[in-house]
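Input (Cuticlin-1):
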Amino acid sequence: LLQQSLSGTSFLIQKMFTFKMSFFINLTILLTFTTIHGVIIDNLIIGEPEVECGTDSMLVSLNTKEPFEGHVYVKGHYDTPGCRTDGTNNKTAKISIPYSNCDVRRQRTSSPAGVFLSTIVVITFHPMFVTKVDRAYNVKCFYMAADKVVSSDLEVRELPSFQSDDVQSMNSLLLSTLATELITQTVEMPECKYEVLSDGPTGQAIKYATVGQQVYHKWSCSSEAVDVYCMTVHSCSVEDGQGRRVLLLDENGCPQDKYLMANLNYPTDLAAQVDSMVFKFADKPSLFFQCQIRLSLKTDGECKRTSDDCNTLKKMKREIFAGKKGENVDVFSDTMVVLDVDDGYATLEDLKKLQALRNSNMHNTIVTEAENGVCLSSISFGILVSIVGLLLLTSISASVMVCLRRDRTTLKK
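Output:
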């Protein structure tokens, strides 16, 4: 009876062992099959997208290798009506972007004089997800300012005849009727830029920051002309790229919230600066700054700005701006990714390394080395635990089977 029981138990263990080994082999085959068949989408853009600049919109057209099933949309406005088009299984795709919608950026420039209208267009080939083969393009349209031509009619008459003895009268008349030649010199308008830096005016441009980090805002214009122009930074705002905007400096260059941006300091005629702390919109990962710079001629060799007396302007309802003339240009800072204090990254260097890994291969599993071990993604950790568990069960089953065979051999003897 004992021998039959042991035989039955051995049979069950053998079946269990065979089942577990079969399950382990099937799991291995499944993982291998998934890895082999996780191929990249076989589609791409042929050539470069074409851009047509209209009076109130821009049209972006592109050709693809295979029928297009994805989406073309303005970055940050996937769900905004009029800012996205869906693929129709054709090898062409088009999107018409209205200037009055989709947060199209307007930037007035002085050299060359005109207006840039720009936006970022994202092209995704998968109908639901963003993949490695997707592309993004910075699309710009430039509208040059019309030249103003001033003309006047000039009537030319023959000089009257004079007697030789009336030379003095003739000279007087000639001097009064001769045309005066007008000599003009063209002075190029300054070129301006806006930077958000770390560690003062000579620091590096910031692309990643944490809330509360101290940064340095710097506005500067370069010009070949000396002691000609003055700059006034005004109408500054911070934007999240999705339509939300908060005013920081008003039309006179006076701060609206001293906790976000204080009064600017002008070390030279064509430079401005201010220190501030990094902030962010709630649940928004990035932001950028936009300002206007008013370029005006010096008055009596001095720069007189509307921001010189912001406290006085508040009492006067800032009516001084109505009489201030000058050429306005738009400047933008780089987009900055802002982390909360408790986002889980020890330093900004960790974020930069993580971003570099994502940019190199979006489908790779990101593994970050920590001080006391290795951090894996949740999927990788689950697969690892399953494999270790199966190996452990297999080892236990094999050990039990060997022990039972030994006991059976002993009983037979």
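The radius of gyration is 37 Å.
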